[in-house]
Specification:
By secondary structure, the protein is α/β, with parallel strands linked by helices. Strands 1, 2, 5, 6, 7, 8, 14 and 15 form an 8-stranded mixed β-sheet that branches. The longest helix has 22 residues. Helix 1 runs parallel beside helix 8 and helix 3 packs across helix 8. The structure holds flavin-adenine dinucleotide. The site of flavin-adenine dinucleotide (FAD) has 43 residues, from helix 1, strand 2, helix 2, strand 9 and strand 13.
């Protein structure tokens, strides 16, 4: 337990102190809490509302690590994290007793025309395991250029619920309902967190507050909310679609219980989480254009969530200029995918070990 030997620095008899306080109980904070706890750390998650109810609740759950869609600097983390997923979810399922619907049927992508012209290699029909019409008979136009990806998908709500239960089972502490208002410091080091009601002491603090990460002094990380609206349909038959389908206008993510997620907008709309009926209808019509049988599908739900965006669309991972204060945020469109690798590399950084990936491109120092 090299990283978590108790230092005497903050030890006052009678005052509870944690090894690590994590601000934010989304999938990033929860996965990190579990990883740190497994290494022997005592961990408190300070969550403003209820854990797992923000971006991690709103996500589609595609585990996209395709070079066509992933920023090059993120590719090594994306590939590693995608590989970690079966073990990551197996552990959560076993420890929580909950299913997270990890699916590996793969994805059929209808690339935008400019990609077809620029990168014809991606549209080789040979990459498809069978003709599109055989893979997905319900698709309206199966003769368009398409390619197949062996990527997985997961149900982010189920995943987050399983991570929350696992964290609780493993003895992670939670303070829910009051926002962290500041990271406390003494002699230049982080010493804990102040909330609207109280303060908590810790040797180390990690900001995992997603789109809100920049609101907690003393650092104003340049995160911003990037709104995504989506909807959920009940497929007319459970086996209507097997693969994730991505086109330029819309993506479709089937769940094993017969639901189908249709997403998503990418909007600069501040912290607004309202859905707009005309936008939801536009997404629905785009889904029907791909799969005409969806015209008879029932809309079960629509919602909007706030992705944590950053100026260069890359996450912010590492120790800040304040010793003992760390950040893991800005996962933008890939936070579900990147949860296991983020937990792994951040645990290493927090313990003072060298992480398995070079985190230089993600350093908080690039914005200071
Ligand atoms: C519509 C949509 C579709 C998406 N689809 C995908 C996808 O297919 N695949 C994928 O990998 N990713 C997807 N994403 C992105 C993914 O959801 C995010 O990158 C990921 O959930 C970020 O996790 P997080 O834990 O950092 O943030 P969040 O889940 O937002 O968690 C942050 C937490 O911090 C809490 N918090 C904020 N401020 C404070 C404070 N002051 N004190 C205490 N707590 C605080 C919040 O209440 C929240 O619970 C999608 C996102 C959206 C919106």
């Amino acid at each position: 337990m090299q990283g978590f030997l108790r230092s005497n620095l903050f030890y006052n008899a009678g005052v509870k102190t944690w090894d690590v306080i994590i601000i934010g109980g989304g999938i990033i904070g929860l996965s990190l809490a579990i990883a740190l706890r497994k290494r022997g750390a005592t961990v408190l998650v300070v969550e403003r509302g209820e854990p797992g109810r923000e971006a991690s609740d709103a996500a589609g759950g595609m585990l996209v690590d395709c070079p066509l869609e992933t920023p090059p600097a993120l590719q090594p983390l994306a590939t590693s994290s995608a590989r970690m997923y079966p073990e990551f979810t197996h552990e959560l399922e076993v420890e929580s007793g909950m299913k997270v619907d990890l699916r590996d049927q793969g994805t059929i992508v209808f690339p935008p025309p400019e990609h077809v012209h620029e990168r014809p290699g991606f549209t080789l029909s040979g990459l498809l395991p069978a003709p599109v019409a055989e893979l997905e008979p319900a698709l309206a136009d199966s003769r368009r250029p398409a390619f197949y990806l062996k990527e997985r998908s997961v149900d982010p709500r189920a995943l987050t619920a399983a991570a929350l239960k696992t964290a609780k089972n493993r003895g992670v502490d939670f303070s829910s309902g009051d926002p962290a208002t500041a990271v406390n410091r003494s002699e230049g080091r982080a010493t804990g967190v102040t909330t609207t009601k109280t303060s908590f002491r810790a040797h180390k603090v990690v900001n995992c507050a997603g789109a809100w990460s920049g609101q907690i002094p003393p650092h104003a990380f340049p995160t911003r909310p990037v709104k995504g609206q989506m909807l959920c349909l009940a497929m007319p038959s459970r086996s209507l679609l097997k693969h994730v389908i991505r086109s330029a206008d819309v993506y479709l993510i089937p769940r094993s219980d017969g639901r189908l997620l249709v997403g998503a907008t990418v909007e600069e709309a501040g912290f607004d989480k309202h859905t707009v009926p005309a936008t939801i209808q536009r997404l629905y019509r785009a889904a029907i254009a791909l799969v005409p049988q969806l015209a008879s599908a029932r809309i079960l739900e629509d919602w909007a969530g706030l992705r944590p965006g950053t100026p260069d669309a890359l996450p912010i991972l590492g120790e800040t200029a304040i010793p003992g204060y760390y950040v893991a945020t800005g996962h933008f469109r890939d936070g579900i995918l990147l949860a296991p690798i983020t937990a792994g590399v951040m645990t290493a950084v927090i313990e003072g070990r060298t992480p398995e990936h070079d985190l230089t491109p993600f350093s908080p120092a690039r914005f200071q």
